[in-house]
Amino acid sequence: MSLSIEEKKRLRGLGHQLKPVVYVSDRGLSEGVVQETDRALEDHELIKVKFSIPDREVKREVMQDLAKVCEAELIHVIGNIGLFFRKALKPNPKLSNLQRLGY
After folding, report:
1. Ranges of residues in the chain whose predicted pLDDT is under 50
2. Which range is the signal sequence, renumbered to this chain (predicted)?
3. What was the pLDDT predicted at 73?
4. What is the predicted pLDDT for the residue at 1?
5. Within 13 Å of residue 38, how many CA atoms lie on the same side as its CB?
6. Cα–Cα distance between 3 and 93 in angstroms, integer?
7. Contact 29, 59 (CB under 8 A)
8. In angstroms, rounded to a whole number, what is the distance separating the alpha carbons of residues 87 and 24?
9. Which of 17, 43, 47, 62 is the most buried (most CB within 10 A)?
10. DSSP string across the chain
11. pLDDT of residue 58
């Protein structure tokens, strides 16, 4: 899934007001983190994930790995927070951040 620059800008704007829903410790990706991220992406489509990894390069690698495993797009990174997007097959209007925020 490849998004245009305009789509990424719009998603970054929508993601600005979101709070992280998944937290990744310095131990890296576990099966539970991947499952929770996958569930959150299916429910909300656009989510923030907070990474508690001190090494910047390792943190960036883990972010890329999580996006690849969950078949999501890493939209934006600021500090310890990554913004992830994956379009849901059947979005729930009550849970989807995209529909709720008017995307």
Report:
1. none
2. none
3. 96
4. 60
5. 12
6. 22
7. no
8. 22
9. 47
10. ----HHHHHHHHHHHTTPPEEEEE-TT---HHHHHHHHHHHHHHSEEEEEE--S-HHHHHHHHHHHHHHTT-EEEEEETTEEEEE---SS--TTT-HHHHTT-
11. 94
